Amino acid sequence: MKSMTGFAYAEKQSGGNSVSVEIKSYNSRFLELEIHLVPPLSPLEPRIRGIIAERCKRGKIEVTIHGKKENPSFSVSVNAEAVRAYAAAAQKIKSLLPPEYGREKIPLGKFLELDGVIEIIEAEKEHGDENEAWEGIKDVFIKAFEKFENERRREGQNTKENILSHIAILEKSHEGIAALLPRMEQSIKNGVKSRIAEFAGESIDENRILAETALLLMKYTIAEEVSRLSSHLSGFRESMAGNDCSGKKLDFICQEINREINTIGAKTPLIEVSRIVIDMKDAVENIREQLRNVE
Question: What is the pLDDT of residue 213?
Fold first, then answer.
């Protein structure tokens, strides 16, 4: 079992170059990935998404990777078309000015400040190789991702232990209700017998008692609900012990458990069962609260 929340950070420095990876996640019904990369690493986004998607099923996961090179190679290029266009515009403006403005030359530095005249291109942006870029961050990314997964497993294990403690409460409560079934059925039978005796005096028709008891048992017995509850609790434990321990699946089983508990509470005539049902509802609510953080 893994939690949907986690955090990890790793960095590497070598020869003046540095790479840092930060991964953090929050609860979400679906898998949401946000990958933030510096421009030279942008081609790696699909690869990083694929790695995460293979091992994460749910949660909003943010990955931020920064890289810094000590002496990055770059080139400076001049946009000749832009220079000619600016020069032509300057000449046109000069020709439109009155004589008193003079005909001074435009300083060269002004052209360097104009948009689009100078283009600085980092070599990695244009000529960087995706595999080479991956090799540069691979070790630190895997280190951060493993720390992230370990953190989620650790938190998930704590959540699992908490959930199992509440499942134990439900199982014990289920045993208590099952033990009260004969008493509940006898209570229904005694109630029918008492009502018939009230109207019929000492002359009691046993067949009528049996018939009315059977009808009431069909309406109010909780034997089927108790049986299904047992099955759901077993299924929950099996899912918790298996590899496919997804929060969505467990939450669905929890809904079925809650449904049976509500029906038992609505049908039972015994105050002892009603008290047990209250404790069971509280346990189920605690489990579902914990499952909101399970992947």
Answer: 65
The answer on pLDDT for 127 being more than 50 is: no
Average pLDDT over residues 279-293: 95
Please tell me which residue, 131 or 213, carries the higher pLDDT value. Answer: 131
Instruction: Count CB neighbours of 96 within 10 A.
Output: 8
Q: Give the span between the Cα atoms of 215 and 189, in whole angstroms.
A: 10
Shared domain check, 136 and 55: yes
Q: What are phi and psi of 263, to 5 degrees?
A: -65, -40
In a domain, residue 56? The reply is yes
**Which two structure tokens, joined as six digits, stand for 170?**
């439900």
Asked whether residue 121 is domain-assigned, the answer is no
The parent domain of residue 59 ranges over 6-71+129-152
- The structural domain count of the chain equals 3
Co-location of 51 and 98 in the same domain: no
CA distance 277 to 271: 10
Bridge-partner residues for 18, per DSSP? 13, 68
CA distance 99 to 256: 92
Cβ burial of 66 (10 Å; 0-12, 13-18, 19+) is middle
Distance CA 129, CA 48 (A): 16
Residue 123 lies in a domain: no
Cβ 67 vs Cβ 41: under 8 Å = yes
- Tell me how far apart the alpha carbons of residues 255 and 274 are, in angstroms, rounded to a whole number: 19
Smallest CA-to-CA distance from 165 within 9, 277, 48, 286 is with 286
Together in a domain, 39 and 51: yes
Q: How many H helices and E strands in the chain?
A: 9, 6
Enter the pTM of the model: 0.68
Name the residue type at position 69: K
Nearest of 129, 93, 208, 226 to residue 170 by alpha carbon? 226
